[in-house]
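Q: Got a minute? One more chain.
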Amino acid sequence: MRRPLLLLCCAGVAVLGTACGQPRTEAGTPVAASASATTATAPAASRGALDPCALLGPADRSAAGLTSPGVAKRVGEASACDYTEPGTFGVTITVDGTSGLADLRTEHGRAEPLRIGAHDALRVADEQADDGTCAVLLGTGESASVHVDVSNSSFSDTALACDRARTVADLIEARL
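A: Always. Here it is, folded:
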């Protein structure tokens, strides 16, 4: 009689732990108390918890000049979401769990430091080439970032591409 009661109590505790938001691993097992404090304070992008297509809601897409939902894809090992305005421009939002701003600053010699909301960021564009491309890279952890890449269909007007990238970065920043 004691064994079934013990199992029932353990099952109840497990259900309550889940319902109360106790952190769990991907396999569904509870995370140890010391690890849960680290998990709770780690940036969402570094935990791989961000869905890049969920970062822009319908109103955000409209504010950014995007008329349709994004399409999920992979960029290497990273999750990404593509938005396309045919004949005008495209936006890709990528959640990078392996490269922080320090890594990206080294890779991109023309990176201009920015501050977007609570996040340090980099703006990467080649103004002289005026190729209609621009990226805003938001730091979300020591080795994590979210990239907003814009390409104009005309392959010109880099300044406009940077305005669009900044608009999208401003819209998603609070969700990071």
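A: The helical segments are 2-19, 33-41, 58-63, 101-107, 158-172.
Q: Perfect, thanks.
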